[in-house]
UniProtKB/TrEMBL annotation:
Reaction(s) this enzyme catalyzes, per UniProt: an N,N'-diacetylchitobiosyl-diphospho-di-trans,poly-cis-dolichol + GDP-alpha-D-mannose = a beta-D-Man-(1->4)-beta-D-GlcNAc-(1->4)-alpha-D-GlcNAc-diphospho-di-trans,poly-cis-dolichol + GDP + H(+)
Top-level taxon of origin: Eukaryota
Topology in membrane: Single-pass membrane protein
Cellular component, GO annotation: endoplasmic reticulum membrane
PANTHER family associated with the record: BETA1,4 MANNOSYLTRANSFERASE, CHITOBIOSYLDIPHOSPHODOLICHOL BETA-MANNOSYLTRANSFERASE
Keywords associated with the record: Endoplasmic reticulum, Glycosyltransferase, Membrane, Transferase, Transmembrane, Transmembrane helix
Name the record gives this protein: Beta-1,4-mannosyltransferase
SUPFAM superfamilies: UDP-Glycosyltransferase/glycogen phosphorylase
Localization terms from the record: Endoplasmic reticulum membrane
Pathway: Protein modification; protein glycosylation
């Protein structure tokens, strides 16, 4: 393919959030760098960005926004103060970079991002490109008493509608959102750019699974093997709660190993972990009644966010026998590997607009991990029930899936047959990665508009 960006041009990506936890925008940056762009990324840096970006010292520069100070104001005044602070911080960062040929902004959050970026592009004669992940006003409505009828939500929607419609180009994450932007926002030039896994998300062999279990066992007791004084006599070189390496370096699963359930979250209101807790409580009760048929279940929840402490308090009160929890904070490489080492993924994202798709499922599929996902309007664009995973709408349905999947684990003939169907379909999904998908759908759009 002929390279679009010759000679090198300047591009800017704006994320009014943590850059390290904005994978899609980081992937955009990596793709632009591959096509000879100089990329400035503006956002908060609470976690480490991708190593690929850190290595590009001359071509990729990260400009950190100043965090909003904690002030003792009323909620409304806090919101006004936050908006003003972020506006000034964003403007300062924008005018500190070389003039970009185009500016790619993530929405949400759209306040104050869309307005500031629009006027900046107007002044600097840069092109404005919006990547629609969801809608700001629907997320805002989650915390409002009157929901979307709230005056602030209606004002947020108007801002998104007015300034969003002025962009030169648009990406979105689903066909359903493309249709909604066309029919209800009068934005017709929207290109669907599905999230796809990068090459970092891959299935792994048992040796790599053992390595990640060994690494995590140094920090988390849930991965440690029960003490055994005669491991040497048994021919075991090293052991975890799930695997063991023999003296001939052959790695094998333990016959009575626990099962691993994994979920990733930002701990925000659009994920109801109460559903998972109730489903696991039902699993616990069922497993206690039939202990020979159901394994102990380790539930791994990764990520950090505003509701994590509340959830930790709830599980701290539980005295379960068959279910345990661990909430590690992992670097990107370990996160990819642990997804591939798990037995089943759970996604509780339900979408405030019903129009976006959870990237965590894309990551899990990239690793060959089947998923139980909360069902909403456009989820079928990603999760195909009984083809690559399961869907549920309440804790009873999730519990049924858990009981069915883990009954007589790992030797259930029916489950293993279903797993083979999932693996085949997921291999087809893995055939198209982010890089190829971006080159097919996004590169031409930049060429057309820029």
């Amino acid at each position: 393919m002929e390279d679009l960006f010759l000679p090198a041009i300047n591009a800017c990506i704006v994320v009014l959030g943590d850059i390290g936890r904005s994978p899609r925008m980081q992937y955009h940056a990596c793709s632009l760098l591959e096509h000879n762009c100089n990329v400035d990324i503006i956002g908060y840096q609470e976690t480490e960005p991708l190593e690929e970006l850190s290595r590009q010292h001359g071509k990729c520069k990260i400009h950190c926004l100043t965090p909003v100070p904690d002030v003792n104001f009323t909620p409304k005044l806090k919101l006004i103060f936050k908006t003003i602070w972020q506006s000034l911080s964003l403007l300062r960062a924008l005018f500190s970079i070389n003039r970009p040929k185009f500016l790619l902004v993530q929405n949400p959050p759209g306040i104050p991002t869309l307005m500031i970026c629009y006027f900046y592009c107007l002044i600097m004669r840069s092109k404005l490109v919006i990547d629609w992940h969801n809608y700001t006003y629907t997320i805002l409505a989650l915390s409002m008493k009157d929901g979307e009828r709230n005056l602030l939500c209606r004002f947020a929607r108007w801002l998104e509608y007015y300034f969003g419609g002025k962009a030169d180009a648009h990406f979105c994450v689903t066909k359903a959102m493309q249709m909604d932007l066309n029919n209800n926002w009068n934005i017709s030039n929207v290109i669907v750019l599905y999230d796809r896994p990068t090459s970092r998300f891959q299935p792994i062999d048992l040796y790599k699974k053992h390595d990640i279990f060994m690494k995590l066992s140094k920090s988390y007791s849930q991965f440690q093997a029960e003490t055994c004084d005669d491991l040497e006599k048994m021919g075991v070189k090293e052991s975890t709660a799930f695997t063991q390496k023999l003296h001939n370096d052959i790695v094998q699963y333990k016959a009575d190993r626990n099962a691993i359930l994994i979920s990733s979250t930002s701990w925000t209101p659009d994920e109801d972990f109460g559903i998972l807790l109730k489903a696991l409580e039902a699993y616990e009760n069922n497993a206690l009644q039939h202990p020979q048929d159901f394994p102990n279940l380790l539930c791994i929840i990764t990520g950090k966010g505003p509701q994590k402490d509340e959830f930790l308090g709830k599980i701290g009160k539980m005295k379960w026998v068959k279910v345990s929890f661990v909430m590690p904070w992992l670097d990107f490489e370990d996160y990819c590997t642990l997804l591939a080492a798990a037995d089943l993924g759970v996604c509780l994202h339900w979408s405030s607009s019903g129009l976006d798709l959870p990237m965590k499922v894309v990551d899990m599929f990239g690793c060959g991990l089947p998923v139980c996902a909360y069902n909403f309007k456009c989820l079928n664009e990603l999760v195909k029930p009984h083809q690559n995973g399961f869907v549920f709408e309440n804790h009873q349905q999730l519990s049924e899936h858990l009981n069915s999947w883990f009954e007589k684990f790992p030797n259930n003939t029916n489950t293993n047959a279903t797993k083979q169907v999932f693996i085949k379909n997921l291999q087809e999904f893995q055939g198209l990665r982010w890089r190829e998908n971006w080159n097919t759908h996004a590169l031409g759009i930049f060429n057309k508009y820029l």
